[in-house]
């Protein structure tokens, strides 16, 4: 009997070690405890610590290293391009800043004024402003009749230069604000009248003549096609005036109408940029340009600017040689290469040196000496075929 009791308590001992055991479940005493892992396995259940690698920090260059880094040399501009006009001229000037970035010797003067034109002289008088711009030893005035201080400066991209520097090339782009009536001598004229056209042409001539008197090349940029058909018709009429003024004063007229048209000659807000990628070139109003459009607009102008600047370069001094010019004296200036050679008429009959028509020489008529050429090319007779040759079409084959 005693052995049976001991055996029963020995069997219940493991269950009691985990909680109340058999008696706890029988009498409802307490809650069962969670099973704990063995002491030897606690390391397997311990939470692992996440190791995060530190991010590399940018190493600040030392003063000696920063000083050793080469810096682009700052070259002050020696040639100046003045861009005048309205808001379209302002966009063109910004595009020329980028287009002429490879020429550090060229500075672009932003002289265009927003909301201006050749109609409202009471708001801004462009002929008078150009006279003040070209006046000797005077700076450019922001408003007609006013003058800047002698030490005034003008921003040229990231450079600051005196505003009274000599202008080498002038660029004018205007007209977007001139679709309105103009007044002169107390009378008002509508834009569709002959008097309006005559007065407007005279004012444009005054601007062009001012630069011509100073021997400054003027590039007059025409207004491109616009979204509105009525507005485009008015701009086309203004372009005709600008083209006529440029022809009379020796200025260069740059036509940008087709450059911003599609294949059908209509307005398109999108088109290829200077890299050939199709992008948006015009703003939502259908008149102004985006940044890419302004850069493309400058592409058609900077070629004429470079040509005008290259023509002003003086000839380099010749090297002193025993039979050449003396040292220190400039050599002969090479003749400017024309853009196109003499015109030759392809259908014109050849003439001899004495003006007589050239007669074919019988001694050089080699074709009539060769019987094969005489037969095939002159008389047009077919050659005799030979059996087995490629031109033998007889059947069956011989």
Description:
The chain is α/β, with parallel strands linked by helices and 398 residues long. The chain has a domain at 79-311: Rossmann fold (3-Layer(aba) Sandwich). The protein contains 10 helices and 11 strands. It has helices at 2-18, 21-27, 42-45, 63-68, 87-99, 126-133, 194-213, 229-249, 291-311, 371-378; strands at residues 79-85, 106-110, 153-156, 159-162, 169-173, 182-184, 187-189, 218-221, 252-254, 270-272, 278-280. The strands form 4 sheets. The protein has a 5-stranded parallel β-sheet, with helices on both faces. Helix 7 (194-213) crosses helix 8 (229-249). The chain is elongated and about 100 Å long.
The overall pLDDT, averaged over residues, is 76
Structure class: alpha/beta
Helix content: 25-40%
Query: What is the strand content?
Result: 5-15%
Distance between the termini: 134 Å
Count of DSSP H/I helices: 10
CATH architecture of the domain at 79-311, by name, is: 3-Layer(aba) Sandwich
């Amino acid at each position: 009997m005693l052995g049976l009791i001991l055996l029963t308590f020995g069997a219940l001992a493991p269950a009691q070690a985990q909680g109340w055991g058999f008696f706890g479940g029988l009498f409802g005493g307490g809650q069962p405890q969670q099973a704990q892992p063995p002491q030897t396995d606690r390391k397997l259940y311990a939470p692992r610590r996440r190791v995060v690698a530190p991010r590399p920090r940018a190493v600040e260059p030392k003063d000696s290293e920063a000083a050793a880094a080469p810096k682009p040399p700052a070259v002050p501009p020696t040639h100046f391009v003045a861009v005048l006009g309205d808001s379209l001229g302002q966009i063109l000037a910004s595009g020329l800043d980028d287009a002429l970035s490879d020429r550090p010797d060229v500075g672009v003067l932003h002289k265009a004024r927003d909301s201006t034109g050749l109609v409202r002289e009471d708001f801004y008088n462009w002929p008078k402003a150009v006279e003040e711009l070209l006046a000797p030893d005077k700076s450019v005035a922001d408003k007609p009749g006013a003058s800047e201080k002698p030490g005034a400066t003008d921003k040229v991209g990231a450079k600051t230069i005196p505003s009274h520097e000599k202008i080498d090339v002038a660029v004018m782009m205007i007209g977007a604000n001139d679709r309105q009536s103009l007044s002169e001598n107390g009378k008002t004229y509508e834009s569709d009248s002959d008097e309006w056209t005559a007065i407007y042409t005279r004012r444009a001539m005054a601007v062009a003549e001012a630069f011509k008197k100073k021997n400054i090349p003027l590039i007059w940029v025409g207004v491109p096609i616009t979204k509105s058909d009525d507005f485009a018709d008015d701009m086309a009429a203004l372009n005709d005036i600008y083209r006529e003024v440029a022809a009379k004063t020796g200025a260069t007229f740059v036509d940008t109408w087709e450059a911003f048209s599609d294949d059908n000659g209509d307005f398109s807000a999108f088109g290829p940029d200077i890299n050939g990628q199709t992008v948006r070139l015009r703003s939502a109003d259908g008149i102004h340009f985006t940044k890419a459009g302004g850069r493309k607009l400058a592409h058609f102008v900077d070629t004429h600017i470079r040509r005008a600047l290259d023509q002003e370069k003086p000839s380099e001094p010749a090297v002193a040689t025993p039979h050449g010019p003396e040292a220190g004296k400039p050599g002969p200036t090479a003749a400017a290469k024309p853009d196109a050679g003499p015109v030759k008429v392809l259908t014109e009959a050849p003439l001899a040196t004495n003006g007589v028509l050239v007669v074919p020489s019988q001694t050089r008529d080699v074709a009539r000496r060769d019987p094969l050429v005489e037969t095939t090319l002159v008389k047009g007779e077919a050659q005799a075929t030979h059996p087995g040759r490629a031109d033998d079409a007889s059947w069956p084959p011989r």
